Amino acid sequence: RVTTLEVQQALTSEALEVLVIVGVLSAPTRRDIEDRRRGEDCDSLLARMCRRGLLVKTRDDTLRGDPNVYRLTAVALGAMGHATLESFQAWCRSQRNPVTDGPRWSD
């Protein structure tokens, strides 16, 4: 019951930013996420998001040092209005900035 209540809470702008970064990159490491957030530490934010069921953390033994990588869950995709990761990524690619005519989200 506690987990369900925690997932239903509103997402902060920081959490949304992390969800977009993880969604666009598919399986970034913590360092990848922090680099995109201008070096801002996000260890505790990532841990909370994993507890809330928005992200899943796994080891990637194909990368040097076997780092943890983060992926979106169905709960996170649903919270953002998408059924699949591909649908979310397509939506991100379709977003254009009218001033620069470039994508709002960058890899």
Could you characterize what this model shows?
The protein is mainly alpha-helical and 107 residues long. 48% of the residues lie in helices and 9% in strands. It has helices at 2-7, 13-25, 30-36, 43-51, 74-79, 85-94; strands spanning 55-59, 68-72. The longest helix is centred in the first third of the chain and has 13 residues, at 13-25. The protein is globular.
Nearest-integer average pLDDT: 82
Mass-distribution shape? globular
The counted number of beta strands is 2
* Annotation field: number of helices: 6
Strand order of the largest sheet: 1-2
How do the helices and strands follow one another from N- to C-terminus? HHHHEEHH
What does the main sheet amount to?
A: 2 strands, antiparallel
Euclidean distance between termini CA atoms: 37 Å
Q: Supply Rg.
A: 14 Å
